[in-house]
Amino acid sequence: MWHRDAYETDLKREVYGLGHADGFSEGLAEGKEEGLAEGKAHTIVTNVENLAENTNCSISEACDLLCISLEDYEKAKQQTID
């Protein structure tokens, strides 16, 4: 069993580079966090813009109707552009 664990560790280091195997879980968690933030930003922008378009109201009015500050919408919009 020990040999298999050592082999897998060596393989991860070879594939991902030295030191990366140890931080692999941290990288996954960081990537998941970034993905969730991007998804949330995309949802905010989509909901505000769809409401504004479908009701012929302004972005500001759509934000008010959805209880989202205009500042939060603008931050989310910027995140989706980057």
Structure overview:
The chain has helices spanning 2-16, 24-55, 59-65, 70-81. The protein is mainly α and 82 residues long. The protein has one domain (2-81). Helix 2 crosses helix 3 (59-65). The longest helix has 32 residues, at 24-55.
Structural class: mainly alpha
Poorly predicted parts: none
Roughly how many Å apart are the termini? 46 Å
Whole-number tally of structural domains: 1
Morphology: rod-shaped
Provide the β-strand percentage band. Answer: under 5%
Order of helices and strands: HHHH
Biggest sheet descriptor: none
Q: What is the radius of gyration computed over CA atoms, rounded to a whole number of angstroms?
A: 21 Å
Average residue-wise pLDDT: 83
The count of strands amounts to: 0
Helical run tally: 4
Q: How helical, in percent, are the residues?
A: over 70%
Summarize the helices and strands and which ones pair or pack.
Layout: H1 2-16, H2 24-55, H3 59-65, H4 70-81
